[in-house]
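Could you help me review a protein record that somebody else here produced? My question to you is simply how this chain folds and whether the tokens agree. Thanks in advance; the entry in question is below:
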Amino acid sequence: MNDQTWSAPAQPGHPVGYPTGSPTPPRTFPRVAAETDSRTIWVWLLIAVSVLGLVPSIWVFYEFMRVMLASASLSPTGANSAAIDPALADGFAQWFVLSIVLGWASVAVVAWFAALDARVLRQRGFVRPFHWAWSLLTPLVYVIGRHVVVRRRGGSGAAPLVATIASQAAVFIGGNVLLMSMMARFFADTIPQG
């Protein structure tokens, strides 16, 4: 075995083993004027649509639990029966399809509003604003990235970011409270007492 380690050949003026090229300087973008407003109507509409787009999903879950409760109360054996009333199942299927269609529509509208928001920011002097396509992941990603880019370019205002986080948290907490209350009702109605 050879115990020698390899090191790069020495370059004049550079320590042994270190790269000789100069590092690429970070990109800098021009800053906007201090009074430039970064708030647009489009970012507020984006936030509203992102929250309203979650309502059908919560409603589908509510309808699913309603169908399950109704089918458990229809069967003589309670929770042990797999019988579901076809009329109830059809009603649930309609809500499910509507939820999917509205979900995709809200994604499209959010992306459209994000593109309009980026265009307005560009018109106000923000060079290379956060790209609208990030809103396809989730509106929260777009609003966070938008906030970072606006702050780095000299803009101010964290209201859209705070509103997005608050609304997402409210929907998350509200959905969990609804879930827990529906599950408690479901178990109270289907588990035999005694």
Q: What stands out?
A: Helices lie at 41-52, 55-74, 86-123, 139-152, 159-190. DSSP finds five helices and no strands in the chain. The chain has a mean pLDDT of 80.
